[in-house]
Design a protein that fits this description.
Elements (H helix, E strand, L loop, with lengths): L27 E5 L2 E5 L4 E3 L6 E3 L4 E2 L5 E2 L5 E4 L3 E4 L3 E2 L5 E2 L15 E6 L2 E6 L3 E4 L2 E4 L2 H7 L1
Antiparallel strand pairs: 1-2, 3-4, 5-6, 7-8, 9-10, 11-12, 13-14
The structure holds calcium ion.
The site of calcium ion (CA) has 10 residues, from β11 and β12.
Length: 148
């Protein structure tokens, strides 16, 4: 814009001047010296037109979709990254949670032990016991031998 002295050019703030905000949709306008920029919220990236924001694809997230979202056991949230399925943790949901040591699974059945498995944990009868209708019963090894 030319000032009244007809010699000085001053920056136009495209972000506030009426009708000059060229950013579209939810893109935020940022005024720069001599120009302006459009910035997208997390989970979206700027189109080639420099003015429109579009959602990240299913494999990217964050600011300008710059982070890879590779969730082994979970789903990608385009703003925050992997949201893991129960039993899984880590940036890529590839770390099994040990529900036994974190006491998320506590085995109350007598003579049973917690066994950590991928994505979960189960209660299993201790060695020498077998599950009989939800009760861990002592295996009579002597009887088993006789039956053979
Ligand atoms: Ca587990």
């Amino acid at each position: 814009m030319i000032e009244s002295d007809l010699q000085t050019c001053t920056d136009i703030n495209e972000c506030v001047e009426d009708g000059q905000n060229k950013c579209l949709g939810d893109a935020t306008c940022i005024n720069t010296e001599g120009s302006f920029l459009c910035e997208c919220p997390d989970g979206k990236q700027l189109e080639n037109d420099g003015r429109t924001c579009s959602e990240c694809d299913n494999y990217h997230y964050g600011r300008n979709c710059q982070y890879t979202c590779s969730c082994l056991n979970g789903v990608c949230d385009k703003r925050t990254g992997c949201v893991c399925d129960p039993g899984w943790a880590g940036t890529f949901c590839d770390i099994d949670i040990d529900e036994c040591s974190t006491e998320q699974v506590v085995c109350q059945m007598e003579n049973s032990v917690c066994v950590n498995i991928l994505g979960s944990a189960i209660c299993s009868c201790e060695i020498g016991y077998q599950n009989n209708s939800g009760v861990c019963q002592d295996i009579d090894e002597c009887d088993a031998v006789k039956a053979q």
